[in-house]
Amino acid sequence: MKTPRYNKTYDTHNCDKEPLKEILRIQPYGSLICCDLQFNDIFFMSEDVRAQLSEFSLAEYMSSTCNIELNDSISMKNFVHTPKLAQYKACTFHFRDSYWLLEIEPNDRLDTSAWDNSAYQESLLSLIASTDTQSFFDEVLRRIREICGYDHIMIYKFDHAKAGQVIAELKSDDRPSFLDLKFPASDIPEPARQLFLKEGIRIISNIKDEKALVKLKEDHPVDLTGVTMRGVSPVHIEYLSNMGVAASMSVSLVKDGKLWGLIACHHKSSKWLQLSQRKWLRFFADFISSNLDRIYKQELKLQELNNQLFQMDLMSNISSSDDFIQSLLNEDSAILSYLNAQSLLVVAEDRLYNRGAELSDIDLNVIASWVQQQDINEVQQYEDLESSQGLKISSDTCGGILVLKISPFAQDYIIWIRSPQNQIIEWGGNPYDGKKYNNVKKRMSPRQSFEKWQESVGTQSIPWSEQDINKAVSFRSYLRNKLYSFYNKTSLLNK
After folding, report:
1. Of 403, 82, 11, whose CA–CA distance to 235 is shortest?
2. Of the candidates 10, 335, 394, 428, which lies 20 to 30 Å from 97 by C-alpha distance?
């Protein structure tokens, strides 16, 4: 009987706390050994090498298996050993403060089919040539398909609530399309998001097979962070199986130090990527993220130019007025159309000012009081005040708000308000029907269907886009400069 994956059961009720890095499983294509820094004591190992390591020392085993001598000349750092002779296996040495993790797998050094330098170089050059996000994502999909050969490749972007949406895809004809479908944040628990951010890529070669880790010292910690063959959560195995997926790969897309999205790759049969391919993928993931940031900055500059023209017209009314607040509330002001809002609420010196769609004094006070209780540094958006935040607003003219804090030193705000809209959200399966008790497994299981499922939402406003946020940030900077200039001018006149 195999050892348990963890010391307790994790399912869809508590998978947000599942210690994925501590799982006592590895994937089937290799072996794993954890030993002390002197390569004398073994703390745990995969079940497939237990018999050999009971007959031979670790040094003898590594010499015959990987053609490497374990001695004092080995540097205390992470490195990959790939023997020149194909009959020996490769080994990735993961250095920890008090122990080694040895990740042993087939050696692809002489297999040139996985390493075409021209294809790799072309993939980088093609991304550099991309000038907009759509052509960039299309090129990313094409290059990963060309080099790695997955059946289904998707660009998966997270929103501010951590739900994901497939914004681009490339697939074989027999795979279902998930383009434009949303997936709930709960599909990727927080421990998995943290590992995506740390590791860059995650490869699952075969969901139907695994090897158990055998602990020789029960009190020794298990931390498989960065180990490519780290085992897979049983909940995620079932999730992939329900999608008809046998192997997968995920590449993290990082922007401003945060997980922006994923490149999600699915395959109908087992698929193992060789060391050379994985080495390229790690570099390619960083290259994609840096170029994604470059393209967004280019598009942001263009948006900024358009914003400045709009702001100049908007601020001309403010600059020529002695009453800053009244200039915002003036019908000639374009402050509402600037962010496609239906109403405006200004909170200044504990007084409330409203323009646009009518809200009762009670509703205005509820919104202002709630905003002042939040920890808002600059700009914050909310799409559904009633459902997501629990605010009781009697008017049907307030669905979501975008809050701009005017000064870091006072509780003064400009709040754009959008009315609720009847929207159809298309999900990849019913997100509310995902947890069902499995009598055979004696635990909760993930949802089984990923067919398009439509939800009609009437309390939410149209979502605030990334461009809306950028425009609000830009307006805040422009406004602060103008107010600072106005303050200095007034101070000089009063001297």
Report:
1. 11
2. 10
pLDDT in tens, 363-390: 899 999 999 999 888 899 988 887 777 7
Contact 154, 263 (CB under 8 A): yes
What CA–CA distance (Å, rounded) separates 225 from 349?
Answer: 51
290: its two tokens:
């840096």
Secondary structure (3-state) at 318: helix
Computed on alpha carbons and rounded to an integer, the radius of gyration of the chain in Å comes to 28
Is the CB of residue 240 less than 8 Å from the CB of residue 205?
A: no
Q: Count of residues for the chain? A: 495
Element (H, E) at 208: none
Which residue did the predictor score with more confidence, 486 or 156?
A: 156
DSSP, res 280 = H
Token pair of 217 as six digits: 């010292």
SS3 for 113? Answer: helix
Two tokens, residue 261 = 């999205």
215, 220, 223, 229 alpha-carbon torsion, rounded to 10°: -20
Residue 176: other Cβ atoms inside 10 A: 13
d(CA 170, CA 152): 6
Distance (Å, rounded) from C-alpha 83 to C-alpha 231?
26
Q: Which two tokens stand for residue 248?
A: 């997968």
179 membership: H or E segment, kind and range: none
DSSP string, 377-443: SSEEEES-TTTTT----S-SS-SEEEEEES-TTS--EEEEEE----EEEEEES-TTS--EEETTTTE
What distances in angstroms separate CA 57 from CA 9, 29, 32, 93, 99, one per listed residue?
Answer: 35, 23, 15, 18, 17
Cβ–Cβ under 8 Å, residues 32 and 46: yes
pLDDT of residue 492: 41
Q: Are 357 and 396 in contact (CB under 8 A)?
A: no
The residues, ordered by sequence, that sit 6+ positions from 376 with a Cβ below 8 Å of its Cβ are 403, 405, 413
Compute, in degrees rounded to 10, the torsion defined by CA atoms 220, 224, 230, 236.
100
**DSSP readout, 114-170?**
G--HHHHHHHHHHHHH--SHHHHHHHHHHHHHHHH--SEEEEEEE-TTS-EEEEEEE
Element (H, E) at 328: helix 324-329
The pLDDT score that the predictor gives to residue 407 is: 82
Q: Which residue has the tokens 């914050």?
A: 380
For the four alpha carbons of 12, 17, 18 and 20, in that order, the dihedral sign comes to: positive
